[in-house]
Amino acid sequence: MVESKVDVEVVYAAVDRQVLLAVSVPAGTTVRAALLASGVGETFAELDLTHCPVGIFGKVITDADTCPVQAGDRIEIYRPLLADPKEIRRLRAAKAAEAKARNQ
């Protein structure tokens, strides 16, 4: 009996480079197992594939150890934010208000 395979993509964008890897895994493979099978951990040694946040097509997967992949899935590995977007917007608004006050 031939084991059926599904083709998925694994993507990761580091600060300086990005990769898109195509991997064929057995049907029923979990997201985490597909990540490990892709070899992305060898390319980016700083990644902790057992705990890193991941998603499929932009939707965060809460339990990558039990969620099976589907054919054509694009598994995305997320890295931590360098700055809180809300804090950046708050600082930008404060700077604009300060500039407006100086110009009046």
From TrEMBL:
InterPro entries to which the protein is assigned, alphabetical: Mopterin_synth/thiamin_S_b, RnfH, RnfH_sf
Gene3D superfamilies: RnfH-like
Pfam families in alphabetical order: Ub-RnfH
Domain of life of the organism encoding this protein: Bacteria
Sequence intervals crossing the membrane: none
Family membership noted in the UniProt record: Belongs to the UPF0125 (RnfH) family.
Protein name, as recorded: UPF0125 protein SAMN04489801_1196
Source organism per UniProt: Pseudomonas mandelii
